[in-house]
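The protein record passed on below.

***
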Amino acid sequence: MQRFAPETPAPSADFIGAFETTLLPAYGVDVAELSGHSTRWQEDADRLLEAGVRRARWSLRWHRIEPEPGSFDWAETDRVLGHLHDRGLDPIVDLVHHTSYPTWLADGFRDRRYPAAYLRYVEAVARRYPWLRSYTLFNEPFATLFLAGHEAVWPPYDRGVEGFTRLLLNVLPALTEASRCWSDLLPDAQHVWVDTGEHHGGAPGAGADYAAFANDRRHIALDLALGHDLDPQRPFLRQILEAGGERLLDLPKARVDVLGLDYYCHSEWWYDGPGFAPSPHPVGFREVARQYWERYRLPMMLSETNIRGLPTDRASWLRYMLEEYEGALADGVPLQGFCWFPSVDSFDWDSLLARAGGRADPVGVVGVGPAGERVRNAFTGVWEAAAAGARAAELPAYRFQSPCSDQLTGLTPRLRHWPWQDPPVEEAVPPINVSVAPDAPSRRTDTEEVAAMPANPVRPDLVVLSHLRWAWVWQRPQHLVSRFADVLAASGARTWFVEEPMSGPVDEPELRVEQVGQVTRVWLVVPARPGLAEYLGFDADEAQDYGERLADWLSTQGMRAAPDVLLYSPMALDVAEALQPGRIAYDVMDDLASFLDAPEGLRLRQRRVLAEADVVYAGGRSLQRGVLPHRPDTHLFPSGVEAAHYEASRALREPRERRVAGYVGVIDERLDLELLGKLAEQLPDWTLRIVGPVTKIDPASLPQAPNLEFPGMAAYAELPQVMAGFDVALMPFALNEATRSISPTKTLEYLAAGLPVVSTRVPDVVADYDGVVHLADDAEDFAAACRHVVEHSREDRDRRLRPIQERHEWDAIAGAMYALLEASGARPGATQAVEALA
C-alpha cells in the first residue's frame, strides 16, 4: 500500500477521528454493532493513536446505557472512556447521535417523556465523567429534527412545518437546559454544537427565492438556542411561530463554545424547478465556513466530511476539503479541527437507516472485512499522511470515478490547477457496457414471475398454526387462509387451522375439530385445574406433546404427506417440525414480542423461525424493517381489503341528528384509552362507539362517559352495517412498543366503507396513507379533525384512495403469497419423508 510522507513539518489541520453509532430504532441494532466497532473499539481507538490523532468524536450509546427508564448500565461506557482517558485520546462525547435514544421512548423525539428522560441522562453522564474536556449534547439538531419532523424520514415520521415545530418544542428547551447543566457541572469543558453546514442556490426567480428561504431555515435551531436574530418576520421563523412555536422565542440561552460544521458534497443544493444536490454551482466549504463565522463569531471545526465512493475518490475529496480548510484558515476563519467521518466504514446509510440490511457504506478511512476485520485501502495511507501533517497540495489528485465524477461536475472549474492522475490500475473500475436488443421485453418482477407459473394440479395440504382463533375477530389470517383453502380444495388438498391449546372440563388431553367452509379448525383441550388459565400458548407445559398428538391424528385423517405449514406464531415452531413439513412459511403479522404478557423467549424463537422458514412475509413496512436484519429476503405484503364487502356500507347509511365517531377492532393495550376518554369530553355532542372484544386489559379500565359506547364484538358479516352507523372512523392507537410496527387492516376497510379516518401517527399509517388519513396527536386535535373531516368530499377521498386500494385487494395478495410458497421448493429431507409415508 502506497504511503505519503509530509514535506512540511507543521500540520495544516488538527485531525479528529470519529465512529458512526446511530441506532436503527425499528430494529434494535446500531451501526456500531453492524460495523463491529462495539467490540473492536479498542483496536479502532489504538489505530487513531498510531496515526498521531489525539481527539475523536465518540458517541455514547444512550440506548444501551439506559435500557429501562432510570436504570443505567455504565459498564461498557466506563471501560471505553476509561481506556481513552488512560491512552490520551481526548473524546468529544456525543450524547445523542441522530435516532440513538432508548427504544422505550416509543414516540422518539415527540415522546412526552423525552425532555425529562434526556435531562436525567445528560446530568448522569456529566456527574459520572467530570474529567471530560469536550462534548456535543445533541448531534445535528436542525438536520435530525428536520428529517424526523419535517420530512418523515426517521421516527416519529412527522411532516411539514407543524411536525418540525412539534419536535423543536419537545427537544430544544431540554437541550438548552442541558447546556446550563453541563456548564455548571463541567465549567472548563467545551460545548461543541454540531450541525450541517449548508448552502442553497438557485436560478433567478423562484429558484433563487426558495434558496434564500432555505438559507434562512438552515440556522433556525442554533439561532433559537442562542437567542440570535429572532426577528418574527424572518421567513422560516414566521412559519414556526404560525405553527405554534412561540415558546421557542423565550428559551434560556445555550452555551456554545465551538461550532462544528458537517459538510458533504450534498450539503449544497440548487433550485431550478425541483431542488437537487449536489449543486452544479457549489460555493465550497471555504465560503460556507466564512458565512457561518460572520454570523456567529464562534471558534469552529469541520466536524464531518466524507464522500461515498471508491478509495481513490475519497482520497481526492480529502485533498479538496483540506484545500478548502486551508483557504478558510487563510481567510481568518478560526477552524480548530478537521474530522473525516467516520474512521471505519459505516453501514446502511444507503437507505438513511430505513432498512437494516447490513450493507457497508464505503466512506471510512478503513473498510470492514467479511469477519469484521479492518481493511486498509488506497485512501487509508492518504488520510494517515494528512493526519501526520501533509498539506493538501502534497496529496494525490486522482481523477474521480463514476458516480462521483458525475456528482462533482460542478467542482471541475475550481480544480483546474490540480495535477490530475489516473487511479492506480488496481483501484480503477472499468465501465460496464450493456447491450440491449431494441425490442427486448422488460424483465418482470419476482412477484410477476411466480404468479405466472403454471398451476400445480397436485398440492400438499396446508397446516396453519395461529395464535389467533378462527372464530374470533376476522383478521389477516382469516382473509388469507380462507382464500388459500379455496385454491387447495380445487386440487383435493385440505386446509387445517390449528389454534393454541385451551384448558377445559376433560379428563385427559383431546383434540377438538370444527369444519368451517373449506377450513378445518383444530385445537387441543387439556384438563383444567386451579390456577391454570383457560387460553394457553403453544409452549404451555400442559401441551408439550401437541405436535406429536396432532401429527398422529392428521395421519388418520388422510392428510397428504409433507404438508406446507404456515406459522403465525413463532412459539408453534416445535409443533410445525413434528409434522415433518415439506415447506414452512412465516407470516409476520404483528410484533408479538412487544405485546402485553408476551411469552418469554418469543424474540429468540422468532429469530430461529426467520432462519429456518422457506418463505417469510411481513404484513407492513415497519414489520418488514424489523425482520430484515435476520431475514433479508422477507417479502412485504401489507394487509388488504375486501372492498366490495365494505362498500355495501355506503348504501346502508341513513341520516341522523347526532354524529358518531367509531372504531372497530380489538380493544387492548394498543388503544390509547386516555385519549378516548378525553375525546369523549371534547365531543359532547357526538357519540363515540367502540366496537370489538376487550382482551388482555381489565374492562374496568375502559373510560366511562355518557357519549361513549362499548357494544362488544361484531361478526365480519355485520361490519358494513356497523360502519354505516359511523360518520367518522377512528384509529386512536397508543404510540408504544405494541404499536410501533402495526399496519392496521382497518385503515382500508374504513376507507372502502366511505368513511373519513382520523388516526394517531402510527408509522405505517403515516408512510402509506399520507394525504388520505387525517393525523392527530391528542384529544383536542382528534376532536377538531373529526369536526373537519366529516364535511370532506367523499368523491375526493375515493379518488385519492383508488390507486392504493387497487394494490391491496385480498384476492391478489393471497394469490401472490401462495405463489411464492409454491416457488420455494421442498425443504431438505421432505422428499425422503414423502417416500417413507408412501
